[in-house]
Amino acid sequence: QTVSVRQVLSGDVAAGTKVTVQGWVRTRRDSKAGFSFIHLNDGSCFANLQLVASKDLPNYEEGILKLTSGASLSCIGEVVESKGRGQSLEIQAESIEVLGLVEDPDTYPIQPKQHSFEFLRTVAHLRPRTNTFGAVTRVRHAAARAVHEFFDQHGYYWVNTPIITASDAEGAGEMFRVSTLDLANLPRNDKGEIDFHQDFFGRETFLTVSGQLNVEAFCLAMSKVYTFGPTFRAENSNTTRHLAEFWMVEPEVAFADLEDLAALAENFLKFVFARVLERCGEDMAFFAERIEPEAINRLEALVNSDFVQMDYAEAVRILQASGKKFEYAPEWGVDLQTEHERFLTEQHCKAPVVVKNYPTEIKAFYMRLNDGGETVAAMDVLAPGIGEIIGGSQREERLDVLSRRMSEHGLDPSTYQWFLDLRRYGTVPHAGFGLGFERLLNYITGLGNIRDVIPYPRTPGSAPF
Ligand code: 4AD
Ligand code: MG
Q: Where would one find the signal peptide in this protein (predicted)?
C-alpha cells in the first residue's frame, strides 16, 4: 500500500500497517545507537515524516549513509507510534531503496537552512523543495479551488477565454506582441513565399491583457460567467506588485450594477479566505510564524468584517484632510497611488475599502458613464498591506455612448465591431471585475513580493525558466 506522508501523519493509516512511502530527504541524522533518522517530504503536507533506518539494513553503509538533503527514496516499513518528540507517528523502515542521490551535496542549492527569497528566485526550478514554496503551492491550489467552488455554488459558468487576441481589453497599449505584419522580416519558404504560419497566419496579434471583453460576450447569453487564466502586461514595472505574466479571476454578471458588483466582490473574497483558513491550517500557521504574524488573524478578521465603501471623491477628501505628507499629493482627477490606498485601508478605515465612481479620464473606455459624465461606475477593492487587488466596473451597455467613448480613446472600430454587436443585439446592464490572483496570494500568505507566489515569475530581467 503506497501512501503519502499526509496520510500517515494525519492518522489515516493505522499504526501497525505496512506501507510504502516515497519522497525527498530533508535531513538525515545518525545516532550512536546504530540508527539513522531520515526526515522525508513528498509535498503532500507541510510536516516531514520520520523514517527510522537501522544499520542492519543491507544497504545501510552503501546507500542510506549517502542520503543527503534533496535525495529521493522509496521506503517500505511499518507505521509505529513515535518515541521521539515532535511527531506522533513514524516509519520503522524494513527497506529503503535509494532512487536518486544528490550529485554534489555541498553545491546543492537547497541546503537545510533559510535561504533568501531573492536567491530562491534564481533557482525557481528547485524552490518547490523549500518549506515556503511547498506552503505557497498548496495555498495557491486551495485558493484556486475555492474560486471555482464559489462561482459554481452561485451558478456561474467558467469560460476559457483566448490567450492570443487582436484586441486591447484595457485600451492601455500594454500588450506583448505575438505576431506582426512587418512583411520585410517575415520568414520565407523554399519557394521564396512568405511563410505566415509562425506569425499567427498573417494577423497582427498580442497576448491578452484581460479576458473581460471575450467573457462579456458569454455573459450576454449565459448571465453569470467567469474566466480564470493567465494574462500579460507589457508594462516595464519592476515592483513587488507587478508581473508581466499573472493570473486573473474575472467574473461578469448580467442584469447587475455597481452595488451588486461590490457585494459580489466582498462575498467572494470572504469565501476564498475562509476556505483557505479551513483547508490550509498547517501552512497558514507556518506563514504566521515565519512571514507575517498577523497572517491568520487578519484573514479571520476580514471574513467577519464589513468592507467599507466610499466614492473616489470622498477618498480624495479624506486623504487631503489627513494632514499626512504623501509623496504624491492627492487631488481629484489623479489616480490613487499605493501610498494613498494603504493609508485608506491601514490607517483610516482599518478594513478593506471599496472605492467607487472614479473620474472618467483615468479609467478604461468600457466603464459605464455616470450621469453628468465626470465619473464612471468603476470600483477598486483595496486591501490593507497590498492596495488594489480587484478592479472592476459596471459596463457601458449603450451602443451610442460606447461607440463615442471608443473613438475618444482612439480604438480602431474594425477590431471591436464584435464587441459593439453585444450592445446592438439585446444589450443589458452588466458588470464585472478582475482579481489579480497573485495579489490575493500575497495578501493571504503575507509574502511581500509578488514574485514569490507564482511558480515561475516573469518580470523585466527575470530568469527565463
Ligand atoms: O485593474 P485591471 O487592469 O482591470 C482589468 O484588467 C479589467 N479588465 C478587469 C475586469 O473588470 N474584468 O486589473 C485587474 C487586477 C488588478 O486589480 C490587480 O489585482 C491585477 O489585476 N493586476 C496585476 N497583478 C499582477 N501584475 C500586474 N502587472 C497586474 N496588473 C493588474
Ligand atoms: Mg486597475
A: none
